[in-house]
Amino acid sequence: MGVLERIAAVRGTEGYTAVDARDGTPCVRIEASALPAFALMLRDECGFETNTFVTAIDRTEKRPVFDICYQFLSLQHADRVRVLIEVDAADPRVPTIKDLWIGASYSERECFDMFGVAFEGHDPLERLLMPEGYEHHPLRKEFPHHGIEPDRLYREWERTRSAGGKA
């Protein structure tokens, strides 16, 4: 039985839409509000014991939206499934899944840092790759490639660190 058939057997076909992922990975689209229940069902009833990544896809050239993309792995069934959630690019927010898969915490922080996605219910989100105070999210399409000084913040951080935490 395939992934989509297992999900349909547990949940029915209500609340999600199967979409073509083009790479052969079964893919479903859900609403953000359905994520906690859908993720719990994937873990507890469909055997997806691992969240392999959480990221965003910036589709603002078509409409001002992001797809928040989750991928899950079932070692028991040797299957993967991808879950997509469309959110407004001006205020991207989705519930956290770190309480179900602790490893998702790192991916959610990275997605916050690079795209500015807020994961509701996550511990206070802090910058992971970029320095605190950096006002941009580098993987957004509107990221200004010219006219910013990314090294300025790194130089300030290095000066503070060299001075033993004193500015």
Overview of the structural elements:
The strands form two sheets. A five-stranded mixed sheet has the order 1-2-5-4-3. It starts with a helix and ends in a 5-residue tail after the last helix. The chain contains four helices and seven strands. The radius of gyration is 18 Å and the shape is elongated. Helices cover 28% and strands 25% of the residues. The protein has 167 residues and is α/β, with parallel strands linked by helices. The protein has a single domain, classed as 2-Layer Sandwich (Beta Polymerase, domain 2).
* Chain-averaged pLDDT: 89
Helicity level: 25-40%
Largest sheet: 5 strands, mixed
Order of neighbouring strands in the sheet with most strands: 1-2-5-4-3
Q: What is the β-strand count?
A: 7
Note the gap between the termini. Answer: 61 Å
CATH class: Alpha Beta
Radius of gyration: 18 Å
Number of helices: 4
CATH architecture: 2-Layer Sandwich
Q: SS-based structural class? A: alpha/beta
Following the backbone from N to C, one meets helices and strands in this order, namely HEEHEEEEHEH
Number of domains: 1
CATH homology-level superfamily: NADH:ubiquinone oxidoreductase Nqo5 subunit
Percentage of β-strand residues? 25-35%
Which fold name is given in CATH as the topology? Beta Polymerase, domain 2
Overall 3D shape: elongated
Stretches where pLDDT is under 50 for at least 5 consecutive residues are none
Q: Any key phrases for this structure?
A:
five-stranded mixed beta sheet; 25% strand; 7 strands; 4 helices; two-stranded parallel ribbon; alpha/beta; 167 residues; Beta Polymerase, domain 2
